[in-house]
From TrEMBL:
Compositional bias (Basic residues): 353-365
Region (Disordered) location: 292-365
Keywords: Membrane, Transmembrane, Transmembrane helix
Superkingdom as given in the UniProt entry: Bacteria
InterPro entries cross-referenced by the UniProt entry: AA-Vitamin_Transporters, EamA_dom, EmrE-like
Annotated compartments: Membrane
Keyword Secreted attributed: no
Record field: transmembrane: 38-56, 68-88, 94-113, 125-143, 149-168, 180-199, 211-233, 245-261, 267-284
Residue span, EamA domain: 10-139, 152-284
UniProt source species: Prauserella alba
Name of this chain's protein: DMT family transporter
Length: 365
């Protein structure tokens, strides 16, 4: 009885904290640019982990491990989160972004055949196609909002970047402990986003308390909490169980966005959720455990994610739905930004203005 209650509690904690990354991205980008939010998020994570390493570890890290986790950091942290956070800045609803990201295990399963020579069943391919159809249904209901149509490609690129990190981890196994691997990834991501924030003129963080609240949310809940609960669930259960729980994050995120931001849940969104859950059931009917879900969090296991957050790495690391790959950097000219425009002092004020804008009728071409 006690064991089942513990397992249930860990599962609930994992779903809630993993979903927190999408909510934190919406809060933070209401106050500043995605580059600034990511730069200071990773700077804080690096500072905390660096202090921990200097106090308790202080041991030499092999050069190969630096290279491996540097690459995984680009894919599973910088690339993945840049797509998720930038899409939030452009107005993509948090629930929609979470739904697209949650297709990662199915996509990885489908690609494991041609890329790794593993068997991909017809059921898995059907699940992938059905899942893509569900996402298209959700996106079609959101296109009347304030986000540009091309903004919806960013969560897709983020998800594909995480998939790329999954396969990179399979090819480059590592035994580096979780904390140190996350430190390398966070430090490299800081080196990526700090110059980007400086070049775009948004290096200085907002002075408002709401901004630092969003940073604390992302660091504590998303980076450390999400990964911590992931490890606890994986160690007590199975990798497949963790991957299945990942599909509960879209409805959780949609509900949280409704309560916190007033983001409406459309009929298309609900229908898309049902279709995607059907896709998951088909994909998980494979006679053997899907290879993709196990790989899904591997980049983070051997490394650790955000917030989705963070012991030595196990022999068969579990996959992390990393809150969180390196998606191609979109042209700097799109979308145009007026760097001089003032940022609101409160994310609540910004989101209210965004909703007023999106409520105006838009012409469809």
């Amino acid at each position: 009885m006690g064991t089942s209650r513990t397992d249930a509690g860990l599962a609930v904690g994992f779903v809630l904290l993993w979903s927190s990354g999408f909510i934190g991205a919406t809060m933070g980008t209401a106050l500043t640019s995605s580059a600034t939010l990511l730069a200071w998020r990773f700077a804080v994570v690096t500072a905390l982990l660096g202090l921990w390493w200097l106090t308790f570890r202080r041991r030499r890290i092999p050069l190969r491990e630096l290279g491996v986790h540097g690459l995984l950091g680009l894919l599973t942290q910088a690339g993945y989160l840049s797509g998720v956070v930038w899409s939030a800045e452009l107005g993509v609803p948090a629930g929609t972004s979470a739904l697209i990201a949650a297709l990662q295990p199915i996509v990885a399963a489908a690609l494991s055949g041609p890329l790794l020579g593993e068997h991909t069943s017809a059921t898995q391919w059907l699940g992938l196609l059905l899942g893509l159809g569900g996402v298209a249904l959700v996106v079609s209901g959101d296109l009347a909002g304030s986000a540009p149509a091309l903004a919806y490609t960013l969560p897709l690129l983020a998800m594909l970047s995480l998939v790329a990190g999954t396969f990179a981890q399979r090819r480059l196994p590592s035994t580096l402990p979780l904390g140190e691997s996350l430190l390398i990834q966070a430090a490299l991501s800081t080196l990526v986003f700090m110059p980007v924030a400086a070049l775009t003129g948004d290096f200085a963080p907002p002075v408002s308390g709401d901004f630092w609240f969003a940073i604390a949310w992302l660091v504590v809940l998303s980076t450390f909490g999400g990964y911590g609960f992931y490890w606890a669930v994986a160690r007590r259960g199975s990798v497949r169980r963790v991957s299945t729980l990942l599909y509960l994050t879209p409805p959780t995120t949609m509900l949280a966005a409704l309560l916190m931001f007033g983001e409406p849940v459309t009929a298309e969104g609900l229908a898309g959720l049902v279709v995607c859950f059907g896709a998951v059931l088909l994909a998980l009917r494979s006679p053997r455990e899907m290879s993709a879900p196990r790989a899904t969090m591997e980049p983070c296991t051997a490394t650790s994610n955000p917030a989705n957050p963070a012991s030595p790495a196990p022999q068969n690391p579990a996959p992390a739905a990393c809150t969180s790959t390196t998606s191609p950097r979109p042209p700097a000219s799109w979308p145009p930004r007026d760097h001089a425009r003032p940022r609101p002092r409160s994310w609540r004020t910004s989101l209210a203005a965004r909703r007023r804008t999106s409520s105006r009728p838009r012409s469809r071409s």
